[in-house]
Amino acid sequence: MESLLSNIKNGEQVIIRKLKDSIFKVKMMEMGLVEGKKLEVLFRAPFGDPIAIDVDGYTLSLRKDEAQLIIVDFQKASKA
Fold it and tell me: Cα separation of 39 and 31, whole Å?
């Protein structure tokens, strides 16, 4: 099942399915956000923005509008 990263709850792990075309796409790819990458949503600021995610062991903070550009999939992501 696909969703936007901005809709994922804290503690959930997902796989990046696709990045939507935008002016941020290249920047996000340079930060390691590429198709097939496993992510975990760590926490959100009190009003839901920004969102902190774990990418290969480092914490990355994204604005909610940036997280809405990332399509993720729940099915193949499982805690190992």
Answer: 12
pTM above 0.90, yes or no: no
Helices (H), 1-80: 25-30, 64-67
- pLDDT, tens digit, for every residue of 53-75? 999 899 999 999 999 999 999 86
* Residues 59, 41: Cα–Cα separation, whole Å: 10
Q: Kindly state the tokens that stand for 17.
A: 């399915």
Q: Rounded to whole angstroms, how far apart are CA atoms 31 and 20?
A: 15
How far apart (Å, rounded) are the C-alpha atoms in residues 29 and 48? 23
